[in-house]
Structure formats: C-alpha cells, structure tokens
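Please fill in the sequence for the structure shown.

STRUCTURE ENCODING:
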C-alpha cells in the first residue's frame, strides 16, 4: 500500500558566462550560503515558466528558453523523476502521450505503433473532402511535439530533413512518414539520405521506423521498425 506524500517542487537555474557562474548569497536562516537562484514551482506552473519567473524575481534577469544543462540531467529527469509525478496523468485508455512516452523509453516499437494507430482511429471527421494532410500533420507532429525534450520534428541534416527524431537514454528513433506509399519506401529514404550517419558514434541503439498512412481510410496502414 502506497502512502500519500506531500511534495514541493523547486527549480534552480545555472547561468554561466564562460568560466563564471551566477550565484546567490542567501542570508535566510533556513538556507544560508551560496546557491543557484531559484525557488518553488507554483500550482499549475510549468518548470520552464517557474525558472523564468524565479530568475526575474531573484535576480532581475530575463531568461529566454531555459534548458536542462546536459543529456545526463535531461534523461535522468525525463525517465526517473518526471514519471513519479505524471504516472497517474494518463487517460486510463492506454492511448495518451504519457503511455506513448513509457513505450518509447522501453523500446517497445510494436506498442508505439498500436498507440499511434489507435489515435488515428479515434479521429472523427464530417467532411471527406478535407485534405488528409490536415489530420496527418496535426496528429503526428502534435503528438511527438508533446513529448517535449524527447522529440525533434523536421530535423535538418546535411543531406535532407528527418521527419522526426526521438531520443532516450537507451534509444534513438528515426521516423520517416509516407502517405499512400509503403513503410519500406520510408525506410529506404532514411538509408538513401544517410540520416543515420550523424549518430554513427552514438552508443545508444538506433531504431529506424518507416510509417505509412492511407489517405482513403485515414489510418496508419503500414509500419516497419529496424534496429541497427
């Protein structure tokens, strides 16, 4: 039986200028000494908004686009800390971005496919003349964008543009999407354009995924995942 716990979320901001760091010399008895500027996350406030607000309040500085400092911190936050606070945020249907994130962390490509297929199957529409691209782009890019730090859509490379790259501590996924064409053709483009080359020295497992969408049936029709 799990006991409920009261948790206070806080943020700290590491601001660096060359070899210099911005520190606060706190004088309050509850926390004296030098520390990074920061404070508590307000109810309903995102971590990013909290950092921006606290930096303004504590230092008078305006911070633009604060980020996690490195991959070790980023993946530790996304895979270890964050799930403890959002594990109950799913819809219960197994078709939500939190469930998708868990499958991505585990490398369960078949489950990833099932979630995306179900998302498309649940889209209702009343006008068959509406361009399929509207559904395709809205759903797929919005879903991957909601993964936040995990995903980068339309990533430019030296030889072209990867539709979507998703990274975790253990895996790198490269997605190529096609409409009314086969998943094999999508995978062939990843190969022909050498999209995997920038990750050749990376220790993580690389997974190439070709995805095809049927514009007549308006559904995910073909999927193939290949592990390097």
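FILLED IN BY: designer on duty
SEQUENCE:
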């Amino acid at each position: 039986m799990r006991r409920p716990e009261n948790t206070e979320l806080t943020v700290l901001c590491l601001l660096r200028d060359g070899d210099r760091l911005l520190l606060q010399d706190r004088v309050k008895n509850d926390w004296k000494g030098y520390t990074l500027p920061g404070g508590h996350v307000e109810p309903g406030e995102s971590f990013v908004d909290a950092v921006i607000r606290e930096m303004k309040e504590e230092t008078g500085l305006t911070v633009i686009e604060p980020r996690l400092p490195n991959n070790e911190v980023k993946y530790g936050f996304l895979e270890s800390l964050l799930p403890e606070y959002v594990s109950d945020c799913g819809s219960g249907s197994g078709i939500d971005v939190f469930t998708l994130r868990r499958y991505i962390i585990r490398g369960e490509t078949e489950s990833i496919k099932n979630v995306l297929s179900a998302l498309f199957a649940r889209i209702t529409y009343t006008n068959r003349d509406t361009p399929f691209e509207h559904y395709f782009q809205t759903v797929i890019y919005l879903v991957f964008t909601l993964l936040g730090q995990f995903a980068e859509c339309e990533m430019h490379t030296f030889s072209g543009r990867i539709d979507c790259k998703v990274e975790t501590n253990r895996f790198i996924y490269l997605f190529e999407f096609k409409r009314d064409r086969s998943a094999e053709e999508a995978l062939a483009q990843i190969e022909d354009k050498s999209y995997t080359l920038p990750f050749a020295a990376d220790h993580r497992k690389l997974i190439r995924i070709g995805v095809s969408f049927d514009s007549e049936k308006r559904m995910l029709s073909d999927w193939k995942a290949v592990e390097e």
